[in-house]
Amino acid sequence: MEGWVMEEKDKEYSILQNFCYCIKATIQNYPKLLVLCVSLIVINAAIPVITTFLPKVVIDEIVNQKPLEHLMFATGLFLGTIIIMTSLQKYIDRLIYWHKYKMNTYFLKMVTNKSLRTDYCNQEDEHFRNLQSESFASCNGNFSYYARIYDTSVGFMANLLGFVTFFYVLIRLNIIIVFFLVISTLASYFMNKRIIKWEKVNNEEKISYTQKLQYITKVSGEIKAAKDIRLYNMIAWLNSVYRVNMEGVNSWYKKYASKIFKVSICDCSFSLVREGVTYFYLLYLVLQGTLTVADFVLYFNVIVGFSAWLNSLLGQVNTINRLNVSINTFRTFVEYPEKYCRNSGEKIHDFLKPRTIELKNVSYQYSGEDSKVIDDLSLTINPGQHLAVVGLNGAGKTTLVKLICGLIDPTEGQVLYDGKDLKVLDRDDVYKAFGVVFQQYSILPVTIAEIVAENIRENVNVDRVKKCLEQAGLMEKINSLKYGLDTKYDKTMWEDGIDLSGGEKQKLLLARALYKNSPIVILDEPTAALDPISEQNMYELYNGVMDSKSSIFISHRLASTRFCSHIILLENGKIIECGTHDELLSLHGKYYELFETQAKHYREKKVDEYEHS
Q1: Which residues are within 8 A (CB) of 183 and not within 5 positions of it... i.e. 6 or more apart?
Q2: Which of 41, 122, 254, 435 makes an SS bond possible with 516, Cβ 3.0 to 4.6 Å?
Q3: Distance between CA atoms of residues 131 and 124, nearest Å
Q4: Is 96 exposed, middle or buried (0-12, 13-18, 19+ CB in 10 A)?
């Protein structure tokens, strides 16, 4: 958690509040884990106490010349108890390990659900994404922060129980000895704390080295990077960078080891003084006749154990503080405020019918940016209308799409669906009204049928999938595959998986949008990576299957959207021109200028290709 910066909106619960939060979650989900932890606390505290008292009992039996049977019985009772408790300790520890995994899964599910369900505007917030990353790490694996809560709590409570027991024994001997032990142990603790402080201050240096090492390790195994690494002979360069950073890590750990060695010398010195003073004091009491040999052995073991208990307690206080920061981060994430209406807003009825979408004086400015991406924009999209939104990169086209389909709310103005502000509508219903193919799309490594239906195989309507693939012009390709609709996508995930060309992926995404059967379909430059002719063919295909729907086509290539009934040209977040393709050309304005520039480029490219063929 080093390097984490707490913001004003982050939760700051106390250690006790977070402890109660974890206890409550455990009781609600796996109460058996709590019972196991309490049992382990008692056993962990009892074993050292019994072990400490065993020598005294044996010596007393011998000194008092008790019968051999009595000595054997007493010794056997203590040893038997220790053996049973040690066996229970190992058994319960393994059970706790398994139940910790269950609780990790529970907390990880909370993180996943929050990530999937949170408002999209939160996902665009860098601070939220940092919280998300830290929260995932805090409950991922049996050695995560959340898993360590149970181990640390068990250790702390067992140490506290043992400390109180030994404190009660020592207070009867000499209170000055107790204060001496506490002071000398605290001195060792603060010496060790200097190591923690040094590590915290210098941790960024280590992270900078390890991040580069991890990146190189990751890149060396990626298929995408494999071609460049070989063709550009990057092996020697990457090895050199790896070696430099490995030397940096080694240097860091050498300094760390040197610090630890010096502190260890001091710690050993304190321990030697602590045990030497107490040893001579106890020996003095024996020689004075005020302490028996059995009591000497008992008190000496108690003193050693007392220091160990106290040292562990102090160490665990640091661990608990670190864990508390992690839990605060986790709770800040899962309790992060949601702005959109979910299950409380007005419902949208008759999803199959497209409605009027109206933007009234809409502006949008991203957090931390100086200028508006969308600036006082007004627009009406009528039911069944095919609208094209064109403009150069950075004009605000994708932001406009996110505003229209309710992924983000405007900083100024209103977005209306059927005359109602999106802010008062159930946002999940709003999402159902839109089928969107984004420029940066996501395709899961599952079967073709599951990709189109966005559902598990058992819930897929096969006939509907086939119809959508047919409409998208991809069914012939799917029929040619060995497993048809059950073909797995992505070769990196499946041995028998397939990859698709750019155009085939666009057809697959179109089929997915058609399967959703939303009344409004938005295509946000999904064909940007295709050549102009392929893009034109794809848009004509899109246009042909959307007669009964409202559609919005986004592109920076003006010729690709000439079939649309209405075109708007965006520049710096404003509509500077609007009309049909022919109307905009006749204006001889910005649209005409951009169209001619692009057309000239493609004509010259075509001539050049012809001359070199």
Answers
A1: none
A2: 435
A3: 12
A4: buried
Residue type, 227: K
DSSP 9: T
pLDDT digits (tens, 9 = 90+) for 230-249: 888 888 888 999 999 999 99
In the chain the first and final C-alpha atoms are separated, in Å, by 61
Q: Rounded CA gap, 356 and 379, in Å?
A: 11
**Which of the four pLDDT bands, split at 50, 70 and 90, describes residue 603?**
low
Which amino acid is present at 329? T
pLDDT tens digits along 340-374: 887 778 888 877 788 999 999 999 998 878 889 99
Helical spans, DSSP H, in 202-222: 203-220
The pLDDT tens digits for 409-459 are 999 999 999 999 999 999 989 998 998 888 778 888 899 999 999 988 888
Tokens read off for 431: 């999402």
Q: Is 554 left (phi over 0), alpha (psi -120 to 50) or beta?
A: beta
Alpha-carbon gap, residue 394 to 308, rounded angstroms: 64
Strand-pair partners of 295: none
Contact 539, 563 (CB under 8 A): yes
Listing from the earlier edge strand, what are the strands of the sheet with 357-364?
A: 374-381, 357-364, 412-417, 420-421
Residue-level pLDDT at 6: 44
Structure tokens at 566: 């209405």
Alpha-carbon torsion (26, 30, 35, 37), positive or negative: negative
Is the pTM for the entire model greater than 0.90?
no
Provide φ and ψ at 253, rounded to 5°: -70, -25
Strands 574-579 and 357-364 come out as: unpaired
Alpha-carbon dihedral sign for residues 88, 94, 99, 103:
positive
* Burial profile 49-71: b = 16 or more Cβ within 10 angstroms, e = fewer: bbbbbbebbbbbbeeeeeeeeeb
Residue 343: burial class (beta carbons within 10 Å; 0-12, 13-18, 19+)? exposed
Angle at alpha carbon of residue 216, lines to 213 and 219, rounded to 5° = 150
Cβ 177 vs Cβ 169: under 8 Å: no
Tokens of 437: 């193919």
pLDDT tens digit string along 501-550?
Answer: 878 888 898 889 889 888 998 888 766 656 666 666 666 776 677 777 89
Tell me the per-residue pLDDT of 112-136, one tens digit each, with 9 for 90 and over.
999 999 999 898 888 888 888 888 8
Element (H, E) at 524: strand 520-524
Contacts of 38 (CB under 8 A, 6+ apart): none
For CA atoms 375, 406, 416, 557, the dihedral sign is positive
